[in-house]
Amino acid sequence: MLPKRLRERLKRRSYQSEIRQRQADETRDRIAAAARKLLEEHGYAGMTMPAVAKGAGVAVATVYAVFGSKTGILSAILDAARFDESYQNLVREAMSTSDPRERLRFPARIARRIYESEHSVLDLLRGAGAVAPALARSESQRECTRYDAQAGMIQFLVRNRSLRRGLDQRRARDILWSLTSRDLYRLLVRERGWTAEQYEDWLGDTLVQALVRPDLPRGD
Prior knowledge:
Layout (H helix, E strand, L loop, with lengths): L3 H43 L2 H8 L3 H8 L2 H13 L2 H11 L4 H5 L1 H19 L7 H18 L1 H9 L9 H11 L2 H10 L4 H16 L9
Helix pairs in contact: 1-2, 1-4, 2-3, 4-7, 4-8, 5-7, 7-12, 10-12
């Protein structure tokens, strides 16, 4: 057992570390909130790093240290819109669902949730051509992460012997990734005028038909 003095020292260090992390999180949130407000009121051009720093009450160097660039701030704003508590609740609900058909409908619900939520931010960036290349690179990395994350859904279908015959895991994940893409949402909802509910219902049905064995007994 560690000496009492050493235990107390380690406890103090842990407490101080928690305080520093909480302060860092608060600073990050304050900067992101200030940037979002500037974006809404003055557009991308008005969301300068000095203006963000002033709105957040921090030094410009702190903004760069936390986010690195304007693109980093935009990515954080988009992530905050996409992955809030309602998203987390959907993920938890999906993980607790054992029926393969019902569980496979959650990617449709989650895709709708993400694309609806990010819409307001992306609209604010219309015409901001300068940001497009850098943000596109960031979003490309995000798509790779999305592809990796969807492996769990396919593995779940494999473990439950409910994956459609003739599909290997890679092809199944390619299908899931493609059908839940932002481009498909944009084409159907933004371009063709589908409602978000119609999109979700169709996507859920399509995922089940494409990935689940048609002869899977109900309740398995």
